[in-house]
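TODO from last week: model omega-amidase.
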Amino acid sequence: SAFRLALIQLHVSAVKADNLQRACGLVREASAKGAKLVALPECFNSPYGTQYFKEYAEKIPGESTQKLSEVAKECSIYLIGGSIPEEDGGKLYNTCTVFGPDGALLAKHRKVHLFDINVPGKIQFKESETLSPGNSFSMFDTPYCKVGLGICYDMRFAEMAQIYGQKGCQLLIYPGAFNMTTGPAHWELLQRGRAVDNQLYVATVSPARDEKASYVAWGHSTVVNPWGEVIAKAGAEETVVYTDIDLKKLAEIRQQIPILSQKRCDLYGVEMKK
């Protein structure tokens, strides 16, 4: 009832081929250390920023996802491919693909909530200048548990996590790139909130911090258990974080504090519309 998860906090450069090569190398390393599920960060093949999305965008399937499919098959693992800028029908999306141990595409999640924020004097960012939002939930099954996907800003929306919980997900994975303003304030807090509210595991995967980039990521890829405890956490540098996801512990916590069966569905509800 336990399996090993690896989060690859990749240093992302401006050279796509280098990013792909290093990502695949670290995936192989993680699999050699027994990881069954391996996750890459948001925007792992390209610098993060509205000015880069169009230049680096690819079709799916395309060069980056082909490499992910091949390395998932070679290592016989489940690979959560962080996210890449995707071009489809003249629109751009921030998209996460998931590949199974046979190299097949299991899920494709387009970031649902676009990151449009303005914190005066600190940070202003508008993904909607270039990106279109996805319109669906994304889940996939593994022999270990069902997994729900979100990308970065999606983590702020508690309803999305709640629906994944209702649908039987026991692990939520959010590739994300919080920044130096929102990272220290909310990155860990949001993960712990999603985990304890829904009594499931939450993992986030950030790029490594690059002080010279136009958008500086917070880093600190993290895993939180259903009790709300941080059980693994990176610093700011490139690294691979390993942790064992124990589904027996999840079942025990749900038994001890049975909030899921004690919800007052006669008074309130969160529903999936499509």
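Done. Residues 65 and 145 are 23 Å apart (CA to CA).
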